[in-house]
Amino acid sequence: MTIHQIRKAYLNFFEKQGHHIIPSSSLLPENDPTTLFTGSGMQPMVPFLLGEKHPDGVRISDSQKCFRSQDIEEVGDNRHTTFFEMLGNWSLGDYFKQEQIPWIFEFLTEEIGLDAKNLYITVFRGNKELGIERDTESVQLWKDVFASKGIEAKDIDFAERDGMQDGRIFYYDESKNWWSRSGVPKNMPVGEPGGPDSEMFWDFGAELGLHETSLFKDEPCHVNCDCGRFLEIGNSVFMEYRKTESGFEALPNKNVDFGGGLERMAAAVNGDPDIFRISVFTKALQALQDQSGSTYGENEQETKGFRVVLDHIRAATFLIGDGIVPSNKDQGYFVRRLIRRAIRFGKRLGVEKGFTARIAEAFIEEYVESYPSLQEKKHIIVDELSREEDRFMKTLEKGEKEFEKIRLEGVVSGKDAFILYSTYGFPLELTTEMVEEAGEQIDLETFKKEFEEHRAMSRAGSEQKFTGGLADHSDATVKLHTATHMLHQALRTVLGDHVFQKGSNITPERLRFDFSHSDKMTDEEKHRVEEIVNEQIHKDLPVHYEVLDLNEAKKRGAVGVFDDKYAQLGGKIKVYFIGEQVTGEYFSTEVCGGPHVERTGSMGIFRIKKEESVAAGVRRIKAVLE
Q1: Is position 473 annotated in a ligand binding site?
Q2: Nearest-angstrom CA–CA distance, 56 and 89
Q3: pLDDT, tens digit, for every residue of 136-177?
Q4: Alpha-carbon distance 378 to 358, whole Å?
Q5: How far apart are CA 10 and CA 13, in angstroms?
Q6: What is this structure's pTM?
Q7: CB atoms within 10 A of CB 474
Q8: Which helix (H) or strand (E) is 400 found in, with range?
């Protein structure tokens, strides 16, 4: 089965179980200052897992696009990718373990045909000190479903110490089988919900000899071993506890949060631990082989190069498709890094100039049915990739010249390597290779120190754990959130209807709003925008929201990101109106999850503090309420 067939089968299966199918959210999170990207399937669902009512009910399912920037350096082996899709199903205070475990087992074994003999399960061991029991309820449910296939599922403890012992279900501690936003139970603040999870692993088989040839060959092999024999394909989180002053108590309304790696499931169906051999990569891989003259899998170093190029260009294609263009800041920094790293590895493979656009076109063709917006934005994606490739080829030339200057002065230090990297965009791996060719080594600790200081500034907290929503729900933050909607409309009034939100970051002190516009704003334009916003604040307009379907939202003039799948799946969206409901005269009508003030008169005076360029065609405003 292709990933498109698996995705369709999954959504159809859970729709039959009474789930409402929602479209994937953008890779660019809305109003979330704690992370730069949507990095997990549950991330857009956090407000609803924490108690907010979902407009589509208590049973939800989707396939969510995800990007994890922290995995960039890991790409090159047979399983890591930066971009992936997560299949998800959620129960928001509705069904629980008794339904979830049989359903997901049925989907894996009946709908996509995985052999139950190759499925292995992990569950929470429990923690007596915290008063949390081991998850024997899940164990029994798993035993029952395996028994339906004629398989005796033996449960084992401490497999990480003693090995598999012919087990099928394995207990692990909270570092492996517990979920909360704050991590392990001891780190959870009072009031925070969390719970045990149950993970599903696919066994590619001991006969492949993956453990014996791995770095872990001297340790016992078990399902959480990193040797490559076992691949996690899904995880059901059972959110059933709340932290209290005295320990943990049961939640009155329990939630289920399932996340399954779409590409990983396809690898399991394929029976091959190499994710890059699933069909979604076939067209792009063939194009890359044709251009390089090399064959995937024949040479270890070349194979790593193939994987880096395929992953990074696929990720960049989706990120640019969601409006994130290459730049030196925030999300754009990672798009640039992906493209440049792909170019570097492509150069090693000997591909010709202009290859990034051709690989992207292969991915667009592959995904066009599932994500039609990629085809609509094809010219933007191709143009951005081509432009970045041209820039970086010039960067490589400049960097090589600068490298030679430094070499003439003596040894290339860790600080020199960082200057080459940060100032000239020269990859560390290239500097390292060139230094090693001269029989020398770079002080990597100094480089890392310089890099971490740089990253702390440029990444704006992308490595932090996701906590959902705005920086907080304080009165000041809510006011500034409402102000972003009013600013958005004022910009469209002054500059034109080409203006759309490209991202925002809101704290109690200020708002930061990115929008599509090519030219620097004049003082007159900024002053007029301030006037318009303050006029609407002075009018003390009421604010309310309505849950609408796509057609109704568009008919009523809502501004926002409308996903292709809303039209196909009949999804509903939350629209906030600023203006008089009785007369229907609204200043702002915008798609958003909230929260907002009840009336604009409480907001204060709006002031623009700074207006600047972020990337080609994208401007940024920083503003406050006084």
Answers
A1: no
A2: 13
A3: 999 999 999 999 999 999 999 999 999 999 999 999 999 999
A4: 11
A5: 5
A6: 0.73
A7: 12
A8: helix 378-409
Identity of the residue numbered 622 = K
Long-range contacts formed by 450-456: CB under 8 A, 24+ apart: 450/414, 450/415, 450/418, 450/422, 451/418, 451/421, 454/418, 454/422
Q: Which amino acid is at 68?
A: R
Provide the 8-state DSSP code for 541: -
Write the pLDDT tens digit of every residue in 77-122: 998 999 999 999 999 999 999 999 999 999 999 999 999 999 999 9
Q: Is 222 annotated as a binding residue?
A: no
CB contact at 8 A, 344 and 337: no
* Pick from 148, 115, 112, 79: nearest CA to 11: 112
Written as one string, the DSSP assignment of 76-102 is TBSS--SEEEEEEEEEESS--HHHHHH
Retrieve residue 599's tokens.
């009336």
What are φ and ψ of residue 381, in 5° steps?
-60, -50
* 20 annotated as belonging to a binding site for a ligand: no
- Please name the residues in contact with 159: beta carbons below 8 A apart, sequence gap of 6 or more: 165, 167, 170, 220, 222, 223, 224
> Tokens 């949507």 identify what position?
38
